[in-house]
Structure formats: structure tokens, C-alpha cells
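Risk register update: the risk of archive-format incompatibility is retired. Evidence:
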Amino acid sequence: AYTDLTCGKRKRALLWALGVPDSQMSATFDRIPLIRARILLAEASMVCLVKAEQILQELLRFYSTSHVWYRQTEILVLQALVKDGLGQADSALATLAEAVKLAVPKGGIGLFMGYGKAIEHLLEKLGTQPELSQPVALLLTALATEDTTPQQGESGHGLPEPLTERELSVLHLLAARYSNKEIARRLVVSPHTVRNHTANIYGKLQVNNRREAVKQAYAIGLLPASTDLGA
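Archived output:
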């Protein structure tokens, strides 16, 4: 479902998000409710946003007593975007401020990536608050780098949607046989963010796993011939 969402097949992703009973969703690992919330956020209808807020509120209650700060940050960022979609501007900024204060001092900049212009607009508003101006400026700089997409004909290699610079970095580390956790440590992001980038890579290369991704990357010249395939 997440791959469908990132590859632009939103209707199919939404069918999954709305078609699975709540009882089954809540009985699964926390990745599933978060993915469901992201799909509902992408749909952006009022009923979907309300449902996404309910899911995120339940997840936040679960993690509020834990020390898993990056999970809390993921939820808070999504909550801020959902509240903004619901027209709750002040609450959205307050929620995003919590996420910034929680994650940026710990190096969790990658947790704010992958949400497009929506998160940038919120951060720009949040940056007007003097106490948050520096961490927000750091985030906006990182997001500007993340959004830089190679030009077709330079490093697009004929792909319908070229890989971003960060996705290319992940691809090189996949080829070097690093695990997701090792990639996360090297890029200073969460393992969840690495999984998101990996899903995007698979979708853009039209493959199903990392071995196929590396093989395809060699075939179209995204990886230099000197890189170890890891056979």
C-alpha cells in the first residue's frame, strides 16, 4: 500500500486503507497504522483527515510514556499536517513545534523529509518564532537538499521519475550490502525513513527487492561498474 502511494497509485492505496477493518489495523504493528494515516492524509478529504487524526492520537497515547523519541516525532509531524488540512492552523504549528524540539537536538532531521511542500510551508511559518528560528532554518536547508532531483539526461538514466540525491545515497549503500539499520546510522535518519526511501527506489526502478534494485541500477548506469554487487 505504501509503495502504491509513493508510486502515485493513490486510489489503490486508499482502497486498502479504507477496506481493512479497524480491529485488524489496531492489532498490527505500529508501521501499519502510520502508513494508513499517511494514505488518508494524501487523500485529504475531511472524512479521511478526521480518521487519520484518530489513528495518530491513539498511536501518540501509546508512545507518550515511552522513550522512543523518533516514533513520537513521526506521529507529531503527521499530526501537524493532518491538523493543517483540517484548518486547525494554530494547533498544527504547536504540534510541529513539539516535533522540532523533540527531534532536531537529537539529529532526527530525516524524520521531517518525504512530505513535500506541505511540511515546508508549515516550517516557514514556525520559523517566525524566535526560539525555533535556528532549528527550523536547519530543517529547511536539509529539505531543500532533499527535494533536489537530478535532471533528466544527467542522472535520470531514462527513468520516468529520477531518483533524488538521498535515494541515490541509499542505493549506493544497498549495493555495498549495508543493512537498513546501518544505512540509517550512516545517514543520521531513522530506519523507517530508510525503508521509505527504499520503497521509493523499488517503485522507481520497478523492482521488488534490494538485489533486483542493485542489478537494475547497474543495468541502467545508476551505479558505477566498480561498485560491489554483493553477489
